[in-house]
Amino acid sequence: MMTTFHQLLELEWFSLALLAALSIAVGQGVASSQPDVLRAGKRGFVGVFLCFMGIGLTEVSFDSNECLALFIRGLLIAASCYGISLLLIPIVAGLYDCLILKPIRAMRYAWYCYQMNARDKRRLRQQERLRQQSQLDWDRSQPHRDRLAVEAEQRQQREAAEHIRRENARAECELLFSLHAPEMHTRFGRPDLEHFMQTYMGNGMSVDEVERRGKELQRIIDQHRQHTKPDRKPRTIQDLAEWFVQEKQRIEGLPLEPDIKDEHLVQLNIRYAELTQDLLQKMEP
Known about the structure:
Elements: H1 2-10, H2 13-30, H3 35-59, H4 64-140, H5 142-184, H6 190-200, H7 207-226, H8 237-252, H9 258-282
Helix pairs in contact: 2-4, 3-4, 5-7, 5-8, 6-7, 8-9
């Protein structure tokens, strides 16, 4: 190192100045668009100058002329190194990028792709296991679902049959009341009938209870009909016809099957004919 330093001290001033000027001119022209290279070159300039001065002060005497010459020579050598560094730093950086950074980036990217593929494969395997487990659970629960479906269908059929039985029980009471309403309207009217049916024959009651209450209601209607006294006021054909039309419309509006509804209408016609005959007989002079 001392030999190199002494060689630098022996260089001519003109050679140093020319080398510094050329290297700075060429280096700044090459690195003018690279601020990082310029900053690195300036740091190198300061470092070389301080190192040269530190070594030089240990080798020369502290004469003012020698110190000035050492200072100027240090500036020229640092400037030459600065210019040369502006040329070498991009070359070294390019070689470093091509030979070291790019392979490292390629290996890191390959490792990243490998990890991503492995993670995707693990996720796909997990999803496949979950799908198979879900399918297995679905297949295992198939008998249970079939049993629930059969039970639900049977329950719906049972509820529909019970609803029809309730409607038939209420319709029979409605028909019996309609046939004898003119005879017992003072003892047991339609409000009494509707109150009984809503209280004891509603949809919230069991079908057996509704049918039992229906039979009780029919017995009540028969008892009222048997204990009804003849009306002292004579009825007219017009009143009887209005009652017939009203009851016929009521029977037609009941939610019954067509055959049952036709049977009730036939019984109503028979009852109307009997009442009409009785009324005509009473009206004979």
